[in-house]
Amino acid sequence: MGLAKTEIFTDLQNEIAVIAKAFGHPARVAILQHLFKMDTCVCGDLVSEIGLAQPTISQHLKELKLLGLIKGNVEGTSVCYCIDSENWTKMKAIISQFLDQDLSNKNCC
Amino acid sequence: MGLAKTEIFTDLQNEIAVIAKAFGHPARVAILQHLFKMDTCVCGDLVSEIGLAQPTISQHLKELKLLGLIKGNVEGTSVCYCIDSENWTKMKAIISQFLDQDLSNKNCC
DNA sequence: TTTGTTCATTGCAATATTACGATGAATAAA
DNA sequence: TTTATTCATCGTAATATTGCAATGAACAAA
Fold first, then answer.
1. Is CB count within 10 Å lower at the N or C end of chain A?
2. Does the distance separating the beta carbons of B89 and A100 come in below 8 Å?
3. Domain B19-95 annotated CATH 1.10.287.600
4. Within an 8 Å CB–CB cutoff, is residue A70 touching chain B?
5. Where are the domains of chain A?
6. For chain A, what is the radius of gyration of the CA atoms?
7. B9, B32, B36, B96: which to substitute to probe chain A, counting the most A Cβ within 10 Å?
């Protein structure tokens, strides 16, 4: 039905899924990488940097902002985006904990 | 259009997105967590463990298997799934590298 | 062989996602 | 004020995802 049955999963499982979903599109990965690469914040360079239309980039930025991974500040007519380092660190911890599960003698079958 | 323009992104960006997408559903997160928790492999316990119908679980397992995150071995009428530790390590490295980007003085705006 | 068990596959309905043109809001420059 | 620039939002088309009932395939037990 296109909609996940979130109510049957734990908060952590849902949280991991929501964060991972944000990374689940190459455009959002590219946006985040670019924001990391630039020492200072970037604005609509993202549109020319990545080859997608402006509304499309704007939509991806909105999702990342909604999740809290990035922040956006208005500067005149342009908007400056940057990584929200505090939230990034939190999310990284959640994902890392999931990825770092013990792999000892897990090569069964 | 519901379809990502993968051709305009780098291989790494697409790879990160594909892996993250696999983690982007709580059912798949739950499946992986369960496979990690069990010392030995699990089979269709996943269906009763997670509250989804058998075809739905089977479909999620298929995606995880296709990506290489898990392996499935037939044992009589049942199928035993487990983490593919080698591939898990590889994917973990790719995601970790993405998550570990430098955050120094990235609190602009 | 027949029956039951386990799992995969198919087909479908409901919803989500992606992408973009058109448009609007806000500000800066002329 | 007029015009240009930058970005967000709306509306919509195309496609993807999620979930399950129905069914099929493979095997084990009787």
1. N
2. no
3. no
4. no
5. 8-95
6. 17
7. B9
Per the CB < 8 A criterion, the answer to whether B108 and A41 are in contact is yes
DSSP for residue A57:
H
CB contact under 8 A, B13 and A20: no
Task: Give residue B27's identity as a one-letter amino acid code.
Answer: A
> How close are the terminal C-alpha atoms of chain A, in Å?
33
- What are the pLDDT digits (tens) for A10-24? 999 999 999 999 999
Percent residues over pLDDT 70 in chain B: 93
CATH of domain A8-95: 1.10.10.10
- Please, are residues B22 and B64 in contact by the beta-carbon 8 Å criterion? yes
Mean pLDDT of residues grouped by 10 in chain A (109 residues)?
89 98 98 87 86 97 97 92 95 98 72
